[in-house]
Amino acid sequence: MSPLTQILLAGLGTYLIRVSFIAFGGRLRSIPPRVELALSMIPPAVLASIAASSLLLEGDELRGLDEWHIAGVAAALVAWRTKNVALCLSVGMAIVWAIGP
Asked: CB burial class (10 A; 0-12, 13-18, 19+) of residue 47?
C-alpha cells in the first residue's frame, strides 16, 4: 500500500470517528459517570506526556540537565500549589526565556 493511500485512509478513518459523535451523539441519553470521569482525565494526561517527553528527550537522545528541568520543576510546583494551568505555563516559559542560552 502506498504512503498516499495510507494517509488518505487514516484521514478518512479519523474523519468518520469524529462525524460519528456528531451524527449519533443525540441518541445517547447520558454518559455513564465512569466514562465521563475517564474522559476528563485525557487532557491532563496528554499535557503531562508532552511535557515529560520534552523534558527528557532532545531529538532521539536524552536531554542533559539544563534550564528546561529548572523550569519544569518550577512549573510543577506552581501547578501543584495554584492549580492554574495558565500560570504554570507562564512561569515555565518565563524561566526558560530568562536563563536560556
From this structure: middle
